[in-house]
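Intended use. Records like the one below are meant for learning the mapping from a protein sequence to its folded structure. Do not use them to infer anything beyond what is encoded.
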Amino acid sequence: MKKILSVLVVATCCLPALSFAQTQKVVADKIIAQVGDRIILKSDIDNAIIDTKRQDPDAQLPPDAGCLFLQGQLIQKTLVLQAEKDSLLVDDDELEALLDNKIRFFISQYGSQDMLEQIAGRSVYQIKEDLRQPFKERTLADKMQNKILDNVKITPNEVKEYFGKIPTDSLRFYESELEVSEIVMYPKANKDLEDFVSAQLLDLKRQIESGQKKFDALAKLTSDDPSAKENGGQFSINKGDKNIDPAFLSAAFKLKEGQISSVIKSKFGLHIIQMVSRAGDDAVVRHILKIPPVTDAEVKGGIAKLDSIRSKIISGDFSFAAAVNKFSEDENSKFSAGFRLNNRDGSTYIAIDELDKDAALALKDMNVGDISKPQSYTDDRGRKVVRILYLKTRTEPHRENLKDDYNKVSQRALEGKKQQVLEKWFKEHIPNYYITIDNGYAGCTGISEWLNVSNVTNR
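Structure written out for the chain above:
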């Protein structure tokens, strides 16, 4: 019964992908367990292992991987049955949205709907139907788990008690971490250069439409989108996707299959777009991106503007956070007050080696509370960028302690408390269900509670 939270992740994240790859697998079916009226097949477990290895070839599965996946399924089936007893429901629109997102993910992985259907050996409709029941069970299990854990809170005394039980030599060591906020601007190319690049794209369009060149071949050779060298500029889009530039989406969905757009301007640069295929609000397109070059004059103009903003912040005309909201052109940073976020846990504390080298160099000699002078650099999309940085916090390398690391410790303490609540809930509820487990899994240590009930059932 240990680590129920992490085992449930195995059940809810890996298993819904099973049916997608089933055409490539031949697995003998056998009922190996049953909870209530819900059965678990040997193929469920074997296919989960195969899918995990397929999705991550470097994954090191434990020797008892079969037991782990069986435990995940037993946990999920129990939660689903209790969810149904408690009249928890999965909204049809909610389920349909989850399925559509999964299909879009598959299409993005394989390049097009046609390629997905060819590899799966089934239509998109059939794939969705194969996934429907696993996704419904996953969602019900999530809702039941949330209901069980909804009121689980942690008090300062509990955090202190949790921390006090950690052996001194097991306390985590943290390198220096920073809280860094930034105001970012993207200098705009002048109109003459934009017109020149636009003419280049129109010439590429002419070559494709005349049959001289193939769109994907020109994308690999000329596009400023780094991924184009691998995919020929092709990717999947959805009409409601908020992460894609609205101008790009609007232009793409006006095209007929095979048609190429005029030159489109988005926040990333200039494009021509070709519609490859479309099914309702989903489509596969190709594009060629050209980023008009920014001259030193535009960069100097951006630096001058940021220098003026910096002076006003220092003089107290407005705060750095207010300036981020008003002036920063990085859309993501507006939701985090300009703070760079830790990729591991989403916190605002970030190690210096997680920053780009230009930011690291600028911050090296800054004191807490300082605002850097404007700097220019080239981002990972090849765009010229200017920014100013604000150093809010710098921690020293240290062993974990409650003064500096309370939030991190309290999060772990809360997860531990949730784990205990779940274990207690399962011990109380598992005996309420009809359970059988194949004798071949009697040695699985993580499913002892289910095995005990199964032994009673089989007598």
